[in-house]
Amino acid sequence: MTFADRLIVLNTTKTGDKSLVVHCLSRSCGRRNFIVSAGKNGPAALFLPLNIISAEVVENSRSSLWRLRSPSSESPLAGIRNSPVKNVISLFVSEVLYRILKEGSGDADLFDWCVTRILTLDALTENYSNYHLRFLLELCSAMGFSVSEESIAPFAGEQLKNLCALIAGDSAESLLVPLRGEDRSAIAAILLEYLGYHSEMNLNVRSLPVLREIFS
Description:
The protein has helices spanning 78-81, 84-100, 108-123, 131-143, 149-156, 160-168, 171-175, 181-199, 208-214; strands spanning 2-14, 19-26, 30-37, 52-58, 66-73. It is α+β, with helices and mostly antiparallel strands. The protein folds into 2 domains: 2-73, CATH 2.40.50.140; 78-214, de novo design (two linked rop proteins) (Up-down Bundle). α5 (149-156) packs antiparallel against α6 and α8 runs antiparallel to α9. It starts with a strand and ends with a helix. The model has no long low-confidence stretch (mean pLDDT 93).
C-alpha cells in the first residue's frame, strides 16, 4: 500500500552509501522511522532537522521500516537556515521532539501545531532568543501537562519569577521577557526536567550545551 503523507524531519541515521533512515513526525502515522534512498549525490539538505517534507509512504508488510519515495520540500525555511542562532534552536527543538515522542505517538493535531511553530521560527526576524522556551512551554500543553506557577514551582528554584513571566504572557509577549543567557539556559534545563518527569523519561538533550554556548 502506498499513500501520500507530510512529515517533519527530526533526525537521520546513515545506514550505508545508498540508504538513510529518517526519523520523522508523520501527520498520518505519528512518530515513525522511514528508509529512503540517498546516494552520495542525494539531497542531504532535504533531511535537515525540522524540514517539512511531502512524500509517498510505501508500506512493507515484512518490516516496520517503511520506505519514503519521491520526497520533496514544502518550505525552504530560509529564515532558519540563514541564521546561525535559529539553526541551533532548530537542532534543539528537533532533538527534544526526537527524544520525547515515542514510536507511534503523536497525531495530526500535534503535527499541525509543530508545523505552525516551525514556520513561526522561520518567519521571526527579531526577538527570538526566548523562542525555544516558549516552544517547551507549549509542548507541555500539547503533551497533556500544561505548566502553571503551582506545577513548575518544585522544579523552578531561583528561576520561578522568570518562569512565571513566561507562563503569564501569550506567545508574542513571552518572546519579549528580558532574560540573560544564563537564565535562558537554566530555564530550558528546568523545562526539560519538567517534561521528563511527566513523560517518565530522562531527556538527555545533547544540543542543550550548544544552545547555552550561543546565548552566553
